[in-house]
Amino acid sequence: MIEFNTFKVLHKTTFNLPDNYTASQLIEDDSPEIKKSVEKLIKIDKDRKTIKYNGNYIIKQKEFKGSIEEFDKKIQEIIEEKTKGKKKDYERKIKKIQSGEIDFPQRNTTNNRLDHLLTGFPKKYLRYCTLEHEKIVEYDMVNAQFCLLGNYIDDFSNPLLSKHMDFNNIDNNNNNIHNTPVNLFMGYSRENDTRKFIDACKQGRIYELAMNEIGVNDRKKFKNMFMGFMFGNVKYDTTSRIYLFFEKRFRNVISIVNGLKMQYASVFKLTNDKKLLRLLYTQNNRKKSRFDAGNDYLPIGLQRCESEIFVDNILVKLQQEKLTVISKHDSILCKESEADRVEAIIIEELDRILGANNYSLRRETITKLLKSKIAA
Fold first, then answer.
1. DSSP bridge pairs for 328
2. pLDDT tens readout for residues 23-46
3. Strand, coil or helix: 333
4. Fewer CB within a 10 Å sphere, N or C end of the chain?
5. End-to-end alpha-carbon separation of the chain, Å?
6. Triad 49, 227, 32: Cα angle to 5°
7. Closest C-alpha among 135, 131, 207, 206 to residue 363
């Protein structure tokens, strides 16, 4: 029912370009920015033998035997290939909106997100969209994954969060871990540095706090750096600015995050749960070790929490109220005329699940069009 209702609302979306301006022209004009966005997702190890794109290995060290020059050439080839792919994907999505050929939404089997045509669709293109010929308003939880992480560290017993985050709950077949997050991490979670981290996460200002101290101005680039550190391998680069920042400001948070990763790795080492075993495979079908899959579970668990909150609770409630809405990861898109009603329900649900003042909700009018393009 969630998928079908979303499918119907997606058909009410229109994409409005200026006269004599095509989707192909729009994407081509934006080509330099698309290339920059690809470059930010490329990660190269210090020895220049391993390339990751968006967290997934493209080339592993043992697979690359060429020279430094050949390696650099390979990087450029990957950037061009991924840029071309993104351009095609964006143009395809725009044309589908324009033609009304909307794909049916599907639940993602990894993180339970509701994937559809607007999933992964950049906000700069959403500004051309309307919903039933009205401007689109977006409500999103600021720094959602870190907000949820902060809430979980603050209260390991939160029913919804512990369902996906407690290492005793994620394996349906085994119960081999007898420690609990409370037993292992409660001491760390009450330290002053951890309390400051929790507050910054809940208030949606953890990026800004770290950026100011580290001295980074590019928020998107810093976000990738921050998430790579928090959700990456437990073997940190101890010389990196982000590690030194955490070592100085949030040492006990590192202990909690590392502890969670190691407990997840222990679960994956023993599991026979088919749903968990699927996580041994990356998007490009590379197989991970059980340790790596466990190490990588933290962001997946947080995304599953996010999906249950925004899809299975907030979206369902909004659909029951017959409101014209679309979920997009940690946000809700709605018509401008229904925004106040939508906002009230979102706040009601978030207060129920997380508690009042334990999150930051942002409202933004996405559509930026000439008045002549919007119905009066």
1. 331
2. 999 999 999 999 988 888 887 776
3. strand
4. C
5. 32
6. 70
7. 135
Query: 288 with 110: CB under 8 angstroms?
Result: no
- Residue 316 amino acid letter: V
Confidence of residue 55 (pLDDT cuts 50, 70, 90): low
* Cα–Cα distance measured from residue 210 to residue 338, given in angstroms and rounded to the nearest whole number: 36
Token pair listed for 46: 């210090």
Tokens of 155: 């209260």
DSSP bridge pairs for 137: 334, 365
- Higher-confidence residue of 363 and 234: namely 363
Closest to 95 in 3D by CA, of 72, 121, 64, 57: 121
Measured at the CA of 314, the angle between CA 312 and CA 315, to 5 degrees, comes to 70
Running DSSP on this structure, what letter comes out for residue 171?
-
Q: Which amino acid is at 240?
A: S
Q: CA nearest 167: which of 183, 144, 151, 148? A: 183
Q: Which residue has the tokens 């095609």?
A: 88
Give the C-alpha distances (Å, rounded to integers) separating 360 from 119, 132, 201: 22, 28, 9
CA atoms within 13 A on the CB side of 81: 9
**Backbone phi, then psi, for 136, in 5-degree steps?**
-95, 130
SS3 of 108-140: CCCCCCEECCCCCCCHHHHCCEEECCECEEEEE
Query: How large is the average pLDDT for residues 241-245?
Result: 90
d(CA 185, CA 253): 10
The pLDDT confidence band at residue 372, using thresholds 50, 70 and 90, is very low
Q: What tokens were used for 282?
A: 């990356």
Which residue type, as a one-letter code, is found at position 201?
C
Reported as a single tens digit per residue, the pLDDT across 169-221 is 888 766 556 678 888 898 999 999 999 999 999 999 999 999 988 888 888 77
SS3 321: coil
Separation between Cα atoms, residue 189 and residue 376, nearest integer Å: 53
**Total Cβ atoms within 10 A of residue 334:** 24
List, in sequence order, every residue forming a beta bridge with 134; answer none if it has no partner: 131
